[in-house]
Amino acid sequence: MENYLSQQRAHVFSNVGVLIYVFDIESRDVERDLATYVNIASALFQYSREAKIFVLVHKMDLIQPSTREDVFDNRVAAIRKKTAEAVAIVRKQKPETAAVTSDADLEMQAFATSIWDQSLYKAWASIIHDLVPNLALIEEQLANLGGAIDAEEILLFERTSFLVVSKWSSDEGECNPFGDRFERLSNILKSWKHTCSKFTGTPRNAEQFTDFEYKAGANFALFITKFTTNTYILVCMPPGEARFNSAKLNVSIARSWFRFLDGPIAAPAAAATAAPAAAIATATTSSSGPSQSTAVTSASGSGTDLLSGPSSET
């Protein structure tokens, strides 16, 4: 660490976009942890002033639930104070004057995390969400696509980690009472992906499946399919076989509208900001058949039910 902060300081901290710093809430030497953070943050502000800071206060499950929020708030307050001190060091100010530093210089987001719940997925998804280029365009395209195919929610996942890159919800989807459903879906899908890897003998980072369908009778239907080279898409919608098949076809048609996700190619022209509604076939036939699930794996081997996979490793 000392070598990074002295001899390699300029090399390590130049052109940095993001600093992700993890604090152990059970640490026995908090002052030393904060002093190390100040040294790193000051180096970051010196060479990469536009960088964002994300702080993970980890192992929060070890804190009593009744005091967990207060402990987290106190630790975050201490970290923000040390962040201001780091800015003051770079500006050659006295630490006591650092409080007047503008909020723009203190762009830091903190998350309480644990390996025993979905908090890590939420933290990493938030970080990935902030780093995605053309995010406004992606969200606009998802909204257009969702409205055209009568979806309730659409999620866009990163292929390997299954972290949520972007999402869209209709008015009906916004009424869903489960606020952590996106993190839970990431956890379930990654677990199922690992199960596919186990039974097919393929590496965990490989592409284990190309298409998954789940139809819950008269309640809802969803499908997950390979979207672009680096993403999967999940579409949740009302039941109805014709509507479901039409949506799958139109998502396949819409792939070309999202190909900019796979690399630094030219973004779609202004005309492309509207979803390919002309190519969207509508369907109103409903279906209330029995609940069923279907999985198609890309490697040899049998499919695995999403709801029966083991918990994923974090």
Description:
By secondary structure, the chain is an alpha+beta fold. The chain folds into 2 domains: 115 residues, Rossmann fold, CATH 3.40.50.300; 175 residues, Beta-Lactamase. Helix content is 38%, strand content 19%. It is built from 9 helices and 9 strands. Strands 5-4-8-7-6-9 form a 6-stranded antiparallel sheet, with helices on both faces. Strands 1-2-3 form a 3-stranded parallel sheet, sandwiched between helices. Strand 2, helix 4 and strand 3 form a beta-alpha-beta unit. Helix 3 crosses helix 4 and helix 5 packs across helix 8. The longest helix has 26 residues. It is elongated, with a radius of gyration of 23 Å. It starts with a helix and ends in a 17-residue tail after the last strand. The relative contact order is 0.10. The C terminus is likely disordered.
